[in-house]
Amino acid sequence: MRIAEVVGRVTLSRSVHSLRGGRLVVLRPMTLEALTEGSPGRGEELVAYDNLGAGPGALVGLSEGREAANPFGKTKTPVDAFCACLLDRLSF
Amino acid sequence: MRIAEVVGRVTLSRSVHSLRGGRLVVLRPMTLEALTEGSPGRGEELVAYDNLGAGPGALVGLSEGREAANPFGKTKTPVDAFCACLLDRLSF
Amino acid sequence: MRIAEVVGRVTLSRSVHSLRGGRLVVLRPMTLEALTEGSPGRGEELVAYDNLGAGPGALVGLSEGREAANPFGKTKTPVDAFCACLLDRLSF
Amino acid sequence: MRIAEVVGRVTLSRSVHSLRGGRLVVLRPMTLEALTEGSPGRGEELVAYDNLGAGPGALVGLSEGREAANPFGKTKTPVDAFCACLLDRLSF
Amino acid sequence: MRIAEVVGRVTLSRSVHSLRGGRLVVLRPMTLEALTEGSPGRGEELVAYDNLGAGPGALVGLSEGREAANPFGKTKTPVDAFCACLLDRLSF
């Protein structure tokens, strides 16, 4: 999982059916260097599905690719990015 | 999902059978910085399948990889990029 | 799918069994900017499976990852790049 | 698999259920050049699941994507990075 | 598949069970430009599974992602990189 910070939210107009009702957040992937120095990261933001209630500024583990769709079980969904966990503390 | 802007369309001559009848658009992935400043983004355009009717200039959530093929159900298809949703409003 | 140009062919000596008999081409991913200006692209060439008969100089839609193996059905194959369609015309 | 060095650990507050009880480490992908010269690598750190007991400073083979979830069997899990092996010796 | 050169080997100490007995090589992805000019490539080396007997200096087709695990059949394995073929001759 990449380390990412929650930087915004998304409002949808039209989407494929399986995404309706979901909560989407805008995430910015971060490096340890960016976290330590407070620099803004690389700016390649992603839209991800969240069901952990990650608020603005929270650090999350960003799971990407096919496995991001796993928690949805057998429902076909085009989700490829998912907040897998809230990172409480990084020690390095 | 990456954030992308619809910048063009594609006309196919030959394709694998499962792609026939589909609508393909050219997408340019965008960062929040590019969206805010009106800069052109990084220019690594992709061809994606669209069934939401995304028009030129629209912002979409671009789903990539195996899960992009999910909405097609059991039909074998080589699609690896899919317009999953129209982004109505990004708040950040 | 990434936009790519056919730039060469590959002759195999040894391969896993499921690849024998296939036709492999060398593809160079392109951006719209490179196509418009005639610049050479980024040079990160790939070897891809082709059954559309894509000739040198043709533009193809390059499907990558697990879904690239879909057209092969149930045969186990390590193919991760596949010419999904010949791009006849890009309008942007 | 990418070559990566263990540089830290993660403490979780909330996570999807299938991740609970697991051990997560922070990995920094390395190149052979970085390993030879002792340079710090590129700094695009990842959070990965570990059940090999990889300690700080250890070099591991980092497996990414859907196959990273394979060792978990049929349990649905959003893990997309996994310490597949401890690299005892690299000869090059 | 990416084009890669075999640059080394790996000796494992501990690994997940499904990797034991396998042969792992260190691969360096190459571009056509690097091959033509004899330049060293980009240096983002990977560890890959090999059962074709690829020796040092050989050029291989590097298959990545979930499909890399296909030749292993039903055994769960975290392999995400696999030597799919020895490239005998590239014509471009």
From TrEMBL, chains A, B, C, D, E:
<dbReference type="InterPro" id="IPR004992">
    <property type="entry name" value="EutN_CcmL"/>
</dbReference>
<keyword id="KW-1283">Bacterial microcompartment</keyword>
<dbReference type="InterPro" id="IPR036677">
    <property type="entry name" value="EutN_CcmL_sf"/>
</dbReference>
<dbReference type="Pfam" id="PF03319">
    <property type="entry name" value="EutN_CcmL"/>
</dbReference>
<dbReference type="GO" id="GO:0031469">
    <property type="term" value="C:bacterial microcompartment"/>
</dbReference>
<protein>
    <submittedName>
        <fullName>Ethanolamine utilization protein EutN/carboxysome</fullName>
    </submittedName>
</protein>
